[in-house]
Amino acid sequence: MTESAAEPSKAPTGDALDRALSAEHAAVYAYGVIGGKTSGALLKRATAGFDAHRARRDQLRTLITRRGGTPAEPGPTYLLPFEVRKPADAVRLAVLVEQRVTTAYLELAADRDPALRRLAALAAQECATRAYGWQPKIGDPFPGMGRGGADVDAAPAEEAGSEEAGSEGAGSEGAGSDAASSESAGADAAPGQEARPEQSAQGGQ
């Protein structure tokens, strides 16, 4: 990520930067749940998303520290907006996560620091690209600023249907994903505690 080389100004850490970090904590947690309910190509995509959000999370931690702030730590668990039982649910959650993280970066893109604006723009673009990869359809013309995730309930990416039948068993092996999902059904909050998807968990944090 070339934008990390840019030296940020020494301005105080802003709320937008803190909120972006909080969104990344939630995304890392959510992708642990997503990885526990997918297999094959979907699991590969979940692992890539997990790694990308973890890298952005660490980058934001570094920026906040450089600016004299104290990076917030993730919560022990996060409430999911719905219960994740099968691959189609995991796809729906992934799209929602990417949309919400995009919203956080769009706010950060209004910062006066050019380095932060560049970081936010690239991160938001990455989120929009991942969301489209999970659910290849045209939604809001300005991702993160549209109808509050109204497009999430549409049909998932094609491979979700072909893998759904064989993925139920594999999902139970995810790192704590069943417990996290069952405790959070019906909640309104966004999904942070790190739980690496499936077999990729042994890679460490």
UniProtKB/TrEMBL annotation:
Signal peptide bounds = none
Q: Where is the composition biased (Low complexity)?
A: 175-192
Q: Where is the DUF4439 domain?
A: 16-145
Membrane-spanning parts: none
Q: Which InterPro entries match?
A: DUF4439, Ferritin-like, Ferritin-like_SF
| Annotated region (Disordered), positions in chain | 134-205
Q: Which organism is it from?
A: Microbispora hainanensis
Q: What is this protein called?
A: Ferritin-like domain-containing protein
Q: Which domain of life is it from?
A: Bacteria
The record's Gene3D superfamilies line, in alphabetical order, gives:
1.20.1260.10
